[in-house]
Amino acid sequence: xxxxxxxxxxDPAGPDHALRTALQDLRTGRWMAMRTLLxxxxxxxxxxxxxxxxxxxxxxxxxxxAWLAEEPGSGPATVMHARxxxxxxxxAQRERHRRTHELWIEAWDAAQSACHAAPQDPVPWVCLLAxxxxxxxxxxxxxxxxxxxxxxxPGPWGLLAEAGRRDPYNREAHHRMLQFLYARGGSGRxxxxxxxxxxxxxxxxxxxALHVLPVYVRVERYRRDSGHDAALDLHWVAEDATRExxxxxxxxxxxxxxxxxxxxxLNHLAHALWGSLQFQDAARVFDAIGPYFTPPPWMYRTPDRxxxxxxxxxxxxxxxxxADGFSTPR
Length: 330
Prior knowledge:
Elements (H helix, E strand, L loop, with lengths): L8 E2 L6 H10 L5 H8 L4 H15 L4 H8 L4 H20 L5 H18 L5 H10 L24 H10 L4 H13 L3 H17 L9 H13 L8 H4 L1 H13 L11 H13 L3 H11 L2 E2 L1 H4 L9 H20 L3
Parallel strand pairs: 1-2
Helix pairs in contact: 1-2, 1-3, 3-5, 4-5, 5-6, 5-7, 6-7, 7-8, 7-9, 9-10, 10-11, 14-15, 15-17
């Protein structure tokens, strides 16, 4: 594979060219390309990913509402409506908007409708899981179900199980569970999230993106604790950090085809391997990334988030130089 050397940039579609075309159409207020794209999407992992990216782009528009008005019986349109409503509720919560609770209830109703309109689809259940983070006190009964393992805390386990019945090891569903655990707050809660990530990875088959979950938790711990203190780079060379990066490489990256790999997962894995000084393996992951940079986790390495791309390029160049030096006969 030819190496990508150009300066990378963030593209929510990543290498999914069909998704990029649908996004361009959506941004001009049209929905037909989105409809066609989703009709042609056959695998749940890709369906989950595409609907998430499309909803993020559509949340500030009425495009999906127009589609649903035109085709009120459409399952995909109903699912996309739920996606958009959830995205709006989560944004309102982040911005502490006064309509957060109203948007939350609207999103919950939309997700329930999607569950009925598309009973085999995991995404409506992923939507309900995403909304669980708006209830960190676990006031809703469905958010305090007993965990499948006694070492794990109560939470929206029933929602996760429903998503899993439709798409086992659904990547976004497990990330939404992590976000719920983060939202509960406190340093002890982060330990719960780490335990959950290890448990989920331990249940997953080779090739599952769940093997990368522990790497995400390590980034979250660094984000909360670092204060951008360079001394905390030791965080990444600790034995358990090195082991987590290595396991993600062996259990996920080496068992997947290029098209199946999430761009955020690739970026998190490259970052973890670089940080733990596993430069040769990191160079392989950087080659798989190509130009498809994602701001997290690189932006947590600098107080100036505009320098995230620069950090990425420096890490990529360092790893490639080390790999090339190792492979060159002396």
